[in-house]
Amino acid sequence: MEGTRVASRYAKSFIDLTIELGVLEQAYADMKLISDVCKANHEFIIFLKSPIINTDKKLNVFKELFAGKLNKATDSYIKLITEKKREVFLAEIADEFINQYKKKKKILTAIVTTANGIDDTIRKKIMEIVKGDGKSEVVLEEKIDKNIIGGFIVRVGDKQVDASIARKLNNLKQTFKENPFIKEF
After folding, report:
1. What is the pLDDT, as a whole number, of residue 177?
2. Best-predicted range by mean pLDDT among 91-95, 147-151, 155-159?
């Protein structure tokens, strides 16, 4: 809970700063890079959370890892949160920055999970349905999960439509368990 609150506050302050400096788009790209690095390398998260490794060593690793890849404002921001001992929340701050950026820019993220992937016509249809008559831009994220057997699951924000075969089979199984017919002798 504390991490979420801290991440939200730090992300909000950084987004306000980047708007003021006019580098919001570059900061967004930087935060996407940081988020991707954190998601791809669990060892990096462990490194960030380690109380044994001192601040100077962490700053040197940041400098080596992100040399020439980050905007000056982002680089200074990472240095600041590391000096304030908040680097343990860097992954959460990056994710929260991305979420707040998308809200500010009115970008919806639709996550589509299928068993085998989707083709261009279905992708286009899903984009039309999700966008509706709104003014929002839609970013489609595709995931493949063989466990759903067939069909699809679409998630936009906190709303989800589950039209998967696995869900239907599970519902059918529950119906058979709750059989109202009692065998009489």
Report:
1. 82
2. 91-95
Residue 145 and residue 78: Cα distance in Å, rounded? 35
DSSP string, 58-95: HHHHHHHHSTTTS-HHHHHHHHHHHHTT-GGGHHHHHH
Query: What are the tokens at 4?
Result: 């979420």
The model carries a pTM of: 0.79
Give SS3 for 150.
coil
3 state SS for 104-155 = HCCEEEEEEEECCCCCHHHHHHHHHHHHCCCCCEEEEEEEECHHHCCEEEEE
Q: Kindly report, residue by residue over 41-87, the tens digit of the pLDDT.
A: 999 999 999 999 999 999 999 999 998 999 999 999 999 999 999 99
Residue 123 contacts by C-beta under 8 Å, 6 or more apart in sequence?
140, 142
According to DSSP, the residues that pair with 142 across neighbouring strands are 112
The tokens for 45 are 């998260």
How far apart CA 155 and CA 113 sit, in angstroms, is 8
Q: From CA 41, how far away is CA 139, in angstroms rounded?
A: 24
pLDDT at residue number 184: 61
Whether the Cβ atoms of residue 150 and residue 165 lie closer than 8 Å to each other: yes
